[in-house]
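re: ur question from yesterday

yeah so i grabbed the chain u mentioned. its 228 aa long if i counted rite. heres the sequnce exactly as i have it in my notes:
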Amino acid sequence: MKSGDNLIKTFAGCFRLIAKLNAGIKDGFFVDLISEESEKLLAGYIKFLKIEGDELDNSYVAQNHILQQKIVAKYPYIVQRSVYVAQCRVELTSQIKKLLNLLNILNYLNLSNPTTPLLLERELLKLQLLLARSKPLLTIKVRGVDNIKNQEKSDKNLKKSSELQKLGTVHKEIAEFIGSKERVQNVEVFAQFADTTRRTLKRKLSELVKAGGIKRLALGKKVFYSVV
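ran it thru and got these structure tokens back, copy pasting raw so excuse formatting
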């Protein structure tokens, strides 16, 4: 069973026991008090479910601090959503603690059958544990984080392919020549295409670099090219 299913099952169990508890409490003041606090717990849980389940398909764990900073800068809405989910979890945990305190008071004053409060206390503690385990704080859960990264990569490759297709025959011949070796110095390109002026070859090399077909490496006065 998934953790989300366990959470729902435990929450439902808590409310069944709360209803049973209220039916057996001898003091109307505490009946109203527990009803009020349980309604707050229900409202908080509904909000938590809505945020957790609203358009969230993937989970992305930022284990690297630099990567986290990049995500914060590039996808601020992801961080906002993550913070909101964490806040809801804290509010729910706080509400559970209030109900646990009320149960202690009921037991101390002997206002109800001791069995039901004990069972409810066990379920509330289980619910608190499931909430804590539902999603680590370092986990940023958001629809399409992986899809966004893949789409960006795909867009870059498409743009690169499109720009390369616009280049002429000489560009392709230069790229093929550079690709035939691990690394080619600019003077080798000039020698291979001696029929074309150096000025033209330099321009075409620059255009290939700009299009993403090759990359340029300068080592002192020497210039090398290699396939990306």
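noticed a couple things. The longest strand covers residues 214-219. also Residues 54-67, 136-145 have pLDDT under 50 and may be disordered.
anyway ttyl
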